[in-house]
Amino acid sequence: MKLLNLTLIIITTLTLLSFGTFAQNPVKVSLTMGSAIPLAEFKSSDNSKLDAGFSNKGFILNIDADYYLHNRLCLSGRFHFGMSDIADKPAFDWMKSNLGNNFFEDSIKTNYGFWQWSAPLLGAKFNYPLIINKLYIETGLFSGFAITQIPILYIELNDIDTARKIFSQNITKSVYSMPFMADLSLRLILNDRIQLKIQSSYFQTATNHQHTSYFSNLNTPKINNEIKTVNLKVPIKTINLSAGLVYTL
To answer: Per the confidence metrics, is the pTM higher than 0.85?
Structure first.
């Protein structure tokens, strides 16, 4: 929370300072796509923890609209989208460990799902020329609102001897949070309208969801008894590497 508050203060301060030096720069829009590399708990495969994300490398997309207040400073609106698959083996081991003595090897069905997040963001960017009118380095800070789809992490066991089914799954479908994002980019001017952008960024947001295990009779989906419910807090943290084009309106 302190980091998010600092981000908002920096963006507000830069905006106010820029009003006295408004430039006639046009609006720019950009699209970049690339890879999301999970960090820390988000990539963890430790099945003894309640904050492991079991995340593989994923995909990210950024759509930006920049309004220049000054030659070096712009306000930016961004739509950020990301997704990543679940590492099957550590996720299965975690569900198996979570069921404890209720787990058995016969007749198993699984569905792991995937992480997916989308975030409308507001922020500011500052650029500096490495080669004037040709090559620029650019930094950005963003915050906003994130919607995260939780992977299902579903396992179903058919216990023929006792005529019952055992289920274990994430029951929370999606969560909402306030994210933070920081960029470092290079922009190469190709012509008056088009620029090439190569971007690295850091993204983080929080999740809080429940995983429940229960059993029911084989002939009915009604829950007869809850075995266990655990609260999971998995922080989504990624380093993103992407490339795309900037178009001057």
So the answer is: no
